[in-house]
Design goal:
The chain is of the alpha/beta class. The protein has seven helices and eight strands. It is about 35% helix and about 20% strand. It has a six-stranded parallel β-sheet with strand order 4-2-1-6-7-8, with helices on both faces. A two-stranded parallel sheet has the order 3-5. β1, α1 and β2 form a beta-alpha-beta unit.
């Protein structure tokens, strides 16, 4: 089985994330993509909404996309999340006989050498890099796949700003995600 792993803050999840997942599923002919909201980020201050809320928003966002599973593997624990640890747990759950594809943006690829055990990540999985405006991934490796992808020009930061400024986000997030944001009064 070919299994994609798409981690991120998803703070909040938005239509760009959905489009990325659909695009990668199709382009690489993956059997499934596991969407994993980060628990506590290792590389910056934790200013994220609660992990359970972000996981719930992801489940609502991806529920009707075939081949997508949302995992709380990182948000269920209150520890710093490292990609290498999560990857090893996913391999343990699904089995080493499968092919694993870590999906990252080119902004992350630019700093990939700073990731904990990045060489081991490259040995255990292929790393799919989605092109992003303003960045050029620097690592050349047999397991790095640079995917020429359409630019999905939406950011969670932009959405949070719009919410703070009471600007409609209906065209940026799935309806069920918008409803959770409104009901829980998030990002105000």
């Amino acid at each position: 089985m070919k299994i994609g792993i798409y981690g991120g803050s998803f703070n909040p999840v938005h239509n760009g994330h959905l489009n990325i997942v659909k695009y990668v599923l199709e382009q690489l002919n993956l059997d499934k993509i596991i969407v994993i909201p980060v628990g506590r980020p290792s590389h910056r201050a934790n200013n994220l909404e609660a992990g359970t809320l972000r996981t719930d928003m992801c489940r609502a966002a991806f529920e009707n996309i075939s081949g997508v599973e949302v995992s709380g593997i990182e948000t269920d624990k209150d520890k710093i999340s490292y990609t290498i640890n999560t990857l090893k747990k996913i391999i343990e759950i699904y089995g080493i006989e499968n092919e694993f594809y870590e999906i990252i943006g080119e902004d992350s690829a630019y700093h990939f050498k700073e990731w904990r055990n990045y060489e081991e990540i490259l040995e255990l999985s292929k790393v799919v890099v989605l092109r992003r405006k303003g960045y050029i991934g620097e690592i050349k490796h047999r397991n790095m796949i640079y995917l020429e992808s359409p630019f999905f020009d939406i950011s969670s930061t932009e959405i949070r700003e719009k919410i703070k400024n009471k600007i409609d986000i209906s065209n940026l997030v799935p309806e069920k995600v918008k409803k959770i944001i409104e009901e829980k009064n998030l990002y105000r």
